[in-house]
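Weekly modeling sync, notes
Attendees: S.R. (lead), two postdocs, one rotation student

Agenda item 3: backlog of single-chain predictions. S.R. asked that every request posted to the team notebook include the full sequence so nobody has to chase files. The rotation student volunteered to paste the first one in as an example of the format we agreed on. Action items at the bottom.

Example entry:
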Amino acid sequence: MQSTAQNVLDYIAEAPQDRQNTLQSIRDFCLEILTDFTEKMMYGMACYVKNDTENTVTMLSFANQKNYITIYFPNEEIVQKNQTTLKNLGKGVSMGKNCVKFSKPNDIDFSFLKNILSEL
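Predicted structure, as returned to the notebook:
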């Protein structure tokens, strides 16, 4: 079910208790590293966007879903470039076309996430 939260803090608060700390950590990393981006809710998930003169560019999104937390990247090149590292993150990590899914949210490797966010 898609969230109707009006802001990211409310979005995190409505997540199951056992995922709130992880979601807040992802948000903290985004706010720390993506300083030129605006945090907003779009498509029922937390998004970090940059406005240029013609359109809004979403650079990163994260979503709390039933069976995992998903981090979406702006294009599949980021996932492809980091594919070897992603495969070595352990069980509970899977990749989509332009996303990484963590079925064990407490096992998210934040150093890896920080490195990817630094590339954006």
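Discussion: group reviewed the output briefly. The longest helix spans residues 17-33.
Action items: rotation student to repeat for the remaining queue; S.R. to check formatting next week.
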